[in-house]
Amino acid sequence: MRAPIGHFDDALPATERRDLLPPPVAAAVTAEMIHVDTDPAKADTAVFVETYGEDLMRHSANCVVVAGRRGQDVTLAACVVLSATRVDVNGAVRRHLGARKASFASMDAAVGGTGMEYGGITPVGLPADWPLLVDPAVVDTPWVLIGSGARRGKLILPGKALAGLPGAVVIEGLGI
Q1: Boundaries of each YbaK/aminoacyl-tRNA synthetase-associated domain copy (predicted)?
Q2: Rounded to 5°, angle at Cα 8 from 162 and 87
Q3: Helix, strand or coil for residue 16?
């Protein structure tokens, strides 16, 4: 199989690669998702696009875990924005979560809450009760490259599919 974006030697339907995915991701992948096997040492965005195709920069999206706080209550959520932008944590995220304060979640909270590897967290297979905030630019991208839940490998899927994931809400102004 040939991936619709990038230059990957090893691309298969994600449903055929469940053995390479963390359990929550393996349980959630669908037939429209493609898994590309990649070198974990080249997982950071700049090195990744240099290795697997410069065109990937405009197709790459990041998934970050945030914590919204109001008093003693903490709400964990995931945010997906294109790699060339950053998440408006103190504006769009804080308002959407109804939090007094919002910040990036600690590595322990992100890894422990998702069951995924830090640096590979993906919106696919998140806990069912987490809000998933998605920037409209991601949804409008024909093919999006995201983490696979592990540092090894990535998922490629239609941007519009992200809006259909459990808990997904498209938020204007999420990516700035």
Answers
A1: 46-162
A2: 35
A3: helix
Confirm whether 28 is domain-assigned: yes
Q: Which domain holds residue 26?
A: 11-170
CA distance 159 to 149: 18
The neighbouring-strand residues paired with 170 are: 134
pLDDT of residue 43: 75
pLDDT of residue 59: 95
- pTM of structure: 0.94
Residue 55 tokens read as 């065109």
Strand bridging mode 34-36 / 61-70 = unpaired
Predicted pLDDT of residue 166: 95
CB under 8 Å to 54, separation ≥6 — which residues?
none
> Virtual CA dihedral for 76, 44, 134, 57, nearest 10 degrees?
170
pLDDT digits (tens, 9 = 90+) for 19-67: 999 999 999 999 999 999 998 888 777 788 889 998 898 999 999 999 9
Tally the domains of the chain. 1
Q: Which helix (H) or strand (E) covers residue 68, if one does?
A: strand 61-70
Look up residue 58 and give its amino acid. Answer: R
Low-confidence ranges of the chain (pLDDT < 50): none
Residue 113 sits in a domain whose CATH number is: 3.90.960.10
